[in-house]
Amino acid sequence: MPIQSRRAASQSRRTFLQQSAVLGTGVWIGTTAPHRLSGQESAQNALSAACIGVGGKGGSDCSHIGEQGVRIVGLCDVDGGTLTKKGREFPDAKKYTDFREMLDQLGDKVDIVCVSTPDHTHAVAALRAMQMKKHIYCQKPLTWSIGEARAMREMAEKMGVVTQMGNQGTSENGLREAVEVIRSGAIGAVSEVHVWSNRPVWPQGIGRPEGEDAVPEDLNWDAWIGPAPMRPFKKGAYHAFNWRGWVDFGTGALGDMACHTTNMPVMALKLWDPVAVTALNNPGIYAGETFPGSSTLLFEFPQRGELPPCTFTWYDGGNLPPDSVISQLPESFQKRVKEQREGGGRKTSGAVVIGSEGLLFSPDDYGARYYLLPENKFKDFEKPEQTLPRIPYSAGGDQRQKWEFVSTCKGEYEPGTMANFSYAGRLTETILVGNLAMRTEEGKRIEWDAAKLVSPNVSEVNQYVNREPREGWEV
Description:
single chain; 475 residues; Rossmann fold; 2 domains
C-alpha cells in the first residue's frame, strides 16, 4: 500500500517531555526527563554530538544527525582514512581513533553519542556514554550479546536518556499502519509468522585465515578489536566489511537483518521472550569462527495476554518457507521465488503473518509495504483507526528516524522515539536467542527462561549469553 508522508510541521519549543513507547502494553507512557545536561545549556541551547564509527552506515548516521541542526563536535573511527574523509565534512570536530579517549575529553561538551561500529563494540561504547547521561543513537542490532541488550535497556531506563536503535523501518508510516492492521484483528488470531532474508552477502561458513599481515599505519587495530579476544590482523578478513559473519564480532545474517525484517510482526504481536528455539536447519558454527552459510530457526512464543501461542520461523542463506506459505502470496512474487529456487533469480526477502482470517505479507525488508491476502477478501478493506503516531517530517526513512530522535532530544516531539531501548532491547534479546540454537546440533530444542537469561535444559549455551570483555574494555 502506498505510504503518504506528512510534511514537516513547525513546533514551538516546550518543556522537555520524554515519551517512550512501551509497546509491550501497546500504550505510550510519558516520563519527565531529567534537567538538561550542561552541553544542552551551551550557546543558544544547540545540541552537540560525538559520532563513533563514521564510515559506511556510520557516515550517513553522522550526516543525518548533523542535518537536524546538531553540532558535530567529535568524530571517532579506527580507520585514519575514514576519519580524515569525514573530517572534511565537519572540519571543526575533533578527531579520535579510540572512543574512550573521545568520551573522556569531550564528555561535558556532548549531548548525543551516535554508535555505528561493528556489533561487538556497541554496548561498551553506548553503556559508557549513557553512564555520562548522553542520549544515544545506536545501530542495529542493539548489541552483540543477549546480556548486553538487557544491560542497555536497563541503563537507558535508569539514566532517563533519549535512545533510538537504527532500525529505520520503524519510522515508516507503512510499518506503523501494518502494526495497527494486525492489532485490529483484521487477519484474525495469528498463530504463525515466517520471515526470510537474502543475507548473508558476506563470508560465512569459513574458518580463520592462516597467518597475519602487517597492521596498516592508519588503523587502530587494538581499538577495532575492542572487547573481543585479540587476534592477528588479516587484510580483507574482518575490517572493514566482512566482520558480520565472525562470531567474535558480528551476529550473522539473523543479527544483521532480523531487527529490520521481524520488527513489524514483533511489534504487532509482542513477540519477545520466546520460551524455546530450535535450529531446524543448522550446519553449525564453523570451526568456532563463523556463522553457517544458511539456517532455519523456529521460535516458540506462549500465550501473551489475549494473543494465542505463536511460532516464528526464520530463514536465511537462500532457505525459504514451505510451498504451503509461498503459494498464498501474489503470483508475481511466487514467480520470483520460483526463479530463486531454480538458481536464475536474485534471493528474495519477505515476512508473512498468518492469521485465522487471512494473512499479511510484506516484501519489504523494513515492513514499509504490505498486502492483505487473499486479495478478493480484502478488496473493500477499510483501515483501522490510527493508534500509533506518524512522524511529521518528509524525507527518507533513515532521515525521518533521525528527526524523531533529535526532536525528542530537543523536547520538541512528545510521542518520543519508537525504537527506544525499552523496545529495541527486547527485540534484540528475542532475535539473539536464535543464535544460541546455532551452537547446538540440528533439531535440538533449547528451552529459554527470558527473565533469568538462561536455558534450563541446554546449559552449554549459557556461556554465550554474555562474555568477559578484554582487559581495558570493560564498561
